[in-house]
Every structure is written in C-alpha cells, then in structure tokens.
Amino acid sequence: MIFPAHRIGKWVVSDRCRLQNGGNFQHETSAGARRERAMTDKQFALFDTAIGDCGIVWGAHGIVAVQLPMSGDDKTRLRIRQRYGDIAEAPPPPDVQHAIDGMIELLEGKPVDLSDIALDMADVPEFHRNVYAIARTIAPGDTLTYGDIAKRLGGVELSRDVGQALGRNPCPIVVPCHRVLAAAGKPGGFSANGGVSTKLKMLAIEGAKVNYTPSLFD
Q1: For residue 193, what pLDDT is reported?
Q2: What confidence score (pLDDT) does residue 39 get?
Q3: Which runs of consecutive H residues, i.e. helices, occur in 22-125?
Q4: Are strands 11-14 and 5-8 parallel, antiparallel or unpaired?
C-alpha cells in the first residue's frame, strides 16, 4: 500500500512515519488508521442452529458480535458487513468454535453455561456492559425483568435504559437478552429478525415460563 509522503530535508517521509532525534524513523498510526486496522482484524463465520443460521464476529480480544438469523444466509452476511465493514469469512479458531458449539447446544435445549466465553466489549458503553453482565448471570430456563436489572443498577426508574441497552446487545445468545422480560412476565420487545416470535421460541427451547397470550395479529 502506498501512503502520501512529504520531504524533510533530504528525507522523503511517509505520513505513516515520523522523524525522531538522531534521524531514526518511528512508525506512527493515525486514529483513523487504527480504526481501519481494528475493523480488518475482525473475521466472521456462519453456523447452523435450531433457530436458523447465525453469525459470529471475532477479533484479537474476543467475540465482538453474534448475529441472529436473517431470512437467508446472504442477508445474514450482508447485515454483518453492514455493521463491521467488508470483513472476511473464515474458519473459526478454537476459542470461537467453543462458543459456537455452546450456542448450538443451548439452542438444542441443553442447559449450557456460556459465561466463560470471552467478549470484546471495548466499544460498548459502561452502563450497557453492566446490564449485559447481569444478563449473563441468568441461567437457561430462568428470567429477570427489566425492572429487576434496573434495581440492581440503581433504581427501577432505569428500566427504560435497561431495555434500550438490551436492544443494542451485540452478542445475543451469549448475552441472553431473550431472558429479560417486561413486567408481570410479559415478553416485552426483541430487536432481532422475527421480533417477539424469535424471543418466545428461544425461551420455549429453554423451558422458560412467559405470560403471553397471542393476539389475532401474531
């Protein structure tokens, strides 16, 4: 790759380097270049589950995202690349394969604990990370409400903020936002493809009880 250059005395210096005392050059990476490199460091894979083909995105510091199924593999790939750039599809390394195997088993109805899976939450706001940390303590078949989590974080008045954080959850299944319900055990919302129907299907697989009566429009 060719970078723009400028002249310092007799030296032609790349914009990616700087001249130090003594005539030595030091590699320098701009903030934009760091973001670009972080993006290209990511890779993804698709994997088959009981609810359809999911996607997983990973980088050097752990899993960055899990994509719940879209209406087809091409749309799942497109959604991943819309969010994370033109990243490569690749065979998952062992730690990512471990996460995939756990998610597959969980969606087959096995009470798998996914709390040991390393997530890269470096770009996630602190409040959201705190919400996700609590959600990860909910065992398969159990549920909490938005209000339950809000109380642990400071007060029930934070319930709406909890719901918004869960709606932006980058790693569903591993961070089981489907196990967080509205008041009185009602399902509440779900931002994934299929909406509440997908949430109810995942809860049914795990044997969780939900206060839900389908309407004529379901």
Answers
A1: 84
A2: 53
A3: 31-40, 73-84, 94-106
A4: antiparallel
**Where does 54-154 have alpha helices with state H?**
73-84, 94-106, 126-135, 146-153
Q: What does the pLDDT look like over 51-74, one tens digit per residue?
A: 999 999 999 999 999 999 999 999
Strand partners for 63: 58, 119
Active site residue 171: no
CA distance 26 to 76: 41
Set out the domains of the chain in order of their start, with CATH numbers.
Answer: 1-28 (no CATH), 41-206 (1.10.10.10)
Taking a C-beta distance cutoff of 8 angstroms, is the pair 165, 180 a contact? no
Q: Which of 17, 54, 171, 177 is catalytic?
A: 177
Residue with tokens 């994370």: 84
Q: What is the pLDDT of residues 8-18, one digit of tens each?
A: 343 333 333 33
Which sign does the torsion angle of CA 6, 10, 13, 17 carry?
negative
pTM of the predicted protein model: 0.79
The percent helix, strand, coil of the chain (3-state, each to 5) is 40, 20, 40
d(CA 48, CA 94): 17
Is 75 strand, coil or helix?
A: helix
